[in-house]
Amino acid sequence: MTYDLLIGDYAYSSWSLRGWLLFERFGISRRVERVAFAEGSVTEQAPGWAPIRLVPAMRTPDGTVVGDSLAMAEELASRHPEAGLWPEDPKARAMARYLAAEMHSGFGALRGDCPMNMRLAYTGVAPSAEVEADLRRLEYLWDYARELCRPEGPWLCGAYSVADAFYAPVAARIAGYGLAVSESAQAYVEAHLNDGAFRRWRAMGLAHGATLERYAKPYATVDWPGPARLAAKAVTAGPSVNEACPYSGDPVTDFLDLDGVIYGFCNPFCRDKTVADPEAWPAFMALARG
């Protein structure tokens, strides 16, 4: 059972990140189609996706188009109860639904003043009073959820759920703008920064799409605060230690160097997303460390 998933730019589309995580984090098969924010409206670029006008959206295997990440989450949870999109425990499930709904409709100041930008991190940001209020609300909600649900791991309501997928772009904003939050909130942000799926999305954002200056802010830039990446680099030629791309299985045409060893990929995007963060990609790491 494979869905079609329509998303926007990896680096900038926070709602697309939420939608993509619903598939990536819960192991649901999809084919990805992208629109570019620099190339016109969603409806112009994806005329076969009526009635949606924004990303993300999905087309179910029976052909129904569903827009809006919260609607997508509920439909996927209904069709794939075994995937665990919502917590099994009723109390935790109710809390997770409430958290996702407040994220879906709230935090306008944080969204407006600090648009998600996976390509840059800033220092010296002085948040407005409205953004500070949003940050205090996030701290309160996250602490309340963890107190109520008593999770053993880093996520809000037990195992990773829709609620965590919805707050992943918030973590990107807090990290990318260097916003000061409580110790417990910072730990939750760092859980996202270290999450393999989050890292794969950011790596694709570094490797694909135009740089959109309208998302840049007039602050000094610093290194991204997530885990340090392995020092891979693109190279122009092989031979590589592998004949087939670790992702597609197709013959290799593009190459990278990691620790003096050349690895091959079937296209520049496969190579470049790996260069951006080699450890984010289990299939590549199995090849490199196998």
UniProtKB/TrEMBL annotation:
Protein name: Glutathione S-transferase
Signal peptide: none
Alphabetical list of Pfam families matching this protein: GST_N_2 (PF13409)
Species whose genome carries this gene: Roseovarius faecimaris
Keyword Transferase included in the entry's annotation: yes
SUPFAM superfamilies: GST C-terminal domain-like, Thioredoxin-like
GO molecular function, one term: transferase activity
Gene3D superfamilies named in the record: 1.20.1050.10, Glutaredoxin
Ranges of residues in domain GST N-terminal: 12-78
Coiled-coil ranges per UniProt: none
InterPro entries reported in the protein's UniProt record: Glutathione-S-Trfase_C_sf, Glutathione_S-Trfase_N, Thioredoxin-like_sf
Keyword terms of this UniProt record: Transferase
Lineage, highest ranks first: Bacteria, Pseudomonadati, Pseudomonadota, Alphaproteobacteria, Rhodobacterales
Keyword tRNA-binding on entry: no
Domain of life: Bacteria
